[in-house]
């Protein structure tokens, strides 16, 4: 579940956005625009924000599911109970 639903999409997003950033940087070398370096930085920063947001939003859900699968529920019973109420995950 963790690999198919979180890591594979994460790596595909990283690869695709990496290709976009690479294309922008290559086109900037061919172009003689004065503010191209600033444009490249903005694009790179926005790509990092998108990838970081994906990780921040989805990693707690999959970490929780992973911990449930390896039976660590007894270590954090109250926290898992609260999370299971909100996420409707219960094994």
From TrEMBL:
Keywords: Membrane, Transmembrane, Transmembrane helix. Residues 1-91 form the G-protein coupled receptors family 1 profile domain. It comes from the Eukaryota. It is found in: Membrane. Pfam families: 7tm_1. GO terms for cellular component: membrane. The chain crosses the membrane at residues 6-24, 45-64. One of its GO terms (molecular function) is G protein-coupled receptor activity. CDD domains: 7tm_classA_rhodopsin-like. This is G-protein coupled receptors family 1 profile domain-containing protein.
């Amino acid at each position: 579940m963790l690999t198919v639903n979180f890591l594979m999409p994460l790596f595909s997003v990283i690869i695709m956005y990496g290709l976009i950033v690479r294309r922008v940087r290559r086109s900037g070398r061919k172009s003689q625009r004065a503010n191209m370096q600033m444009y490249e930085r903005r694009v790179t920063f926005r790509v990092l924000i998108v990838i970081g947001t994906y990780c921040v939003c989805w990693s707690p859900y999959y970490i929780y599911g992973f911990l449930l699968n390896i039976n660590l529920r007894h270590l954090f019973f109250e926290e898992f109970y609260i999370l299971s109420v909100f996420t409707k995950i219960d094994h």
